Every structure is written in C-alpha cells, then in structure tokens.
Amino acid sequence: MPKLGMEPIRRTALVEATIHEIGVRGSLDVTVSQIARRAGMSSALAHHYFGSKEAIFAAAMRHILTLYGTEVRGALVMAKTPRDRIEAILRASFAPRQFRPEIVSAWLNFYVQAQTSADAARLLHVYQKRLRSNLRHALRQVAPNETATLTRGLAAMIDGLYLRQALGRDGIAPQAAIDVLLHYLDTALGRVPGTKDVKR
C-alpha cells in the first residue's frame, strides 16, 4: 500500500526518470520497469500511479511544458518592447535547462508519439498554439504586414534546431541557437516593408 503523502514525490520521481531514460536511449523504446528502476521503485507502483506507459510519457511532456511555460513567463516579465518580447520567447526556448540533451530527446520523441497518441497530439497542439500566439502578439506590433510569415518562420526554426540537436547533426550551443534566431528576426524586420521602428 503506498504511503500517504508520497504520491506527489513518487510521481515527480517517475516523470524525471522517464525524461532521463528517453534521453539515454534516444527513443520511446523504454519500459515501465526501466523507468521505475531509475526512480527507485517497483513497476507495480509506477503502474499504480499512472496506469500505463503512455500516461507516464504524457506526464513527462506536461512536466516539460510546465517548465517551458515558467521560463517564458519569467523572461517576458523583463521585456519592455515588442522586440524584447520576441527575444524573451526565443531565449526561453533555448534556456540551458530547456536545451539539455534529455529534454531535446524527449521533444523529438514527443513529436513522434503525437502521431499515434491523442493525448500527446493535444499537448503538442497546446504548445504550438501558445508559442505562435506569443510570437504573433509581439510581431503584430513591429511587422503588421508579415506577422503570420514571421511567426511561422520563427516557430519552424525553433523546431528545426531542436530536431537537428536531437539527431546529433550540427549540434549547437544554446546561445548560438539564440543568435541564429535573432539574426533571422532582425534581418527580416529590416527588410519587411511597413516594419515599424524597433528599439533594441
């Protein structure tokens, strides 16, 4: 019988163990037994808390999305201009604790899982919708004529940099990834007709 008060602690341990195991293996080919062992508990207890491996994976992605959301909100608090808001979102996407190998690997596998899991697909949709909404809000104020195009471009570049990192091709440091995105942003803002003056 699980001890009272231990459920939140054990759930968190299982979620963190899931992220670690996915990172080590680079795929979703992870068993509940491996996750439970990493978390220091039995497979039966892991099943008791989550019910299935898919539910554990979904909980791990909700955890990653929560951390990401906290990172974005914290960065946006410091932003004073629309350009600052865009940069804050980009920096949050590549913050050191977001761009760790195990998190990057989890994101790649999350995209794969979303092809067959309704829960994963829903979580992915929520993430994409929030990212694009945040970018669109700021871009509308500096590039009203090209908001949709720039939003799609920045979102695609974020996904692309994560994908390349997860595949181990042309690995990039977090700051270098941010620099690439900011260069794209500033180049686009400088060339788009009707762009308003952007203060750095």
Notes on the protein architecture:
By secondary structure, the protein is an all-alpha fold. It has a domain at 57-191: Tetracycline Repressor, domain 2, CATH 1.10.357.10. The protein is built from nine helices and no strands.
Task: For the structure shown, list the relevant keywords.
200 residues, mainly alpha, Tetracycline Repressor, domain 2, 9 helices, 0% strand, elongated
Quick recap:
With 200 residues, the chain is an all-alpha fold. It has nine helices and no strands. It has helices at 7-25, 32-39, 43-50, 53-77, 82-93, 101-113, 118-142, 147-166, 174-191.
Spell out the blueprint of helices and strands.
Layout: H1 7-25, H2 32-39, H3 43-50, H4 53-77, H5 82-93, H6 101-113, H7 118-142, H8 147-166, H9 174-191
Radius of gyration: 19 Å
The averaged pLDDT comes out at: 88
Please give the CATH architecture of the domain at 57-191: Orthogonal Bundle
Main CATH class of the domain at 57-191: Mainly Alpha
List SSEs in N-to-C order: HHHHHHHHH
CATH-assigned fold name of the domain at 57-191? Tetracycline Repressor, domain 2
Largest sheet: none
Please name the fourth-level CATH homologous superfamily of the domain at 57-191: Tetracycline Repressor, domain 2
**Shape, principal axes of CA atoms:** elongated
Helix-strand makeup class: mainly alpha
Task: Give the helix level as a range of percent.
Answer: over 70%
Cα end-to-end separation = 58 Å
Unreliable residue runs: none
Classify the beta-strand content into a percent band: under 5%
What's the β-strand tally? 0
Specify the number of helices: 9
